[in-house]
TrEMBL record:
Native source organism of the sequence: Modicisalibacter muralis
Transmembrane segments annotated in the record for this chain: 6-22
Keywords: Membrane, Transmembrane, Transmembrane helix
Keyword Transmembrane helix carried by entry: yes
Protein name in the entry: Preprotein translocase subunit YajC
């Protein structure tokens, strides 16, 4: 009888590390979310967010601007993480870096709609020439991210502008 109890204990001791390696529900949800984002053309990156004291767990999701139509340079920060000295944009968001040229009314409207669609853990929306980047804590599942992704893709399309020289790209001969 003691032999079987010892064997059961040894078997459970061997099985327990395997159970620790199993991904949690949260890990599986994040894996599906990141896979879905990559499949829809959104790059997922792990880097330091552009905040002074960022909370842990922020990940960047990047929507690429068309190469011939780079995006404007700006940085929007959620009010909770922004200084009161920064200029407000819409309710809950402030400019850390404001665009040099005013946004078109269509681009501004799309940007406002995209900001309204973001979850509460979205802290920074950054636009550079190459990417529109969302820094957030990945609180949504795949279905919830679909709405957020669609509004940010629409904003990216509205924000992408003419080439820096103002020329329209010429067709190859």
């Amino acid at each position: 009888m003691t032999f079987w109890l010892v064997m059961l204990f040894v078997f459970l001791a061997m099985l327990s590390p395997i159970m620790w390696l199993r991904p949690s529900r949260r890990d599986r949800r994040l894996g599906l979310l990141r896979q879905h984002a990559r499949q829809t053309g959104v790059a997922v990156r792990f880097a330091k967010p552009p905040l002074h004291a960022p909370p842990g767990g922020l990940v960047s999701y990047r929507w690429r601007y068309p190469q011939a139509q780079p995006g404007p340079l700006f940085l929007l920060v959620r009010d909770d993480y922004a200084s009161e000295a920064l200029k407000p944009f819409v309710k809950g968001w402030r400019w850390r870096i404001e665009p040099l040229r005013p946004l078109s009314s269509e681009a501004q409207q799309c940007l406002e709609q995209a900001l309204a669609a973001l979850p509460e853990d979205a802290l920074v929306l950054e636009s550079e020439r190459i990417h529109l980047t969302l820094w957030w804590g990945e609180s949504l599942d795949v279905a919830g991210f679909g709405d957020c992704q669609a509004s940010l893709a629409t904003a990216r399309d509205a924000l992408s502008g003419p080439s820096p020289s103002g020329d329209t790209p010429k067709a190859p001969r």
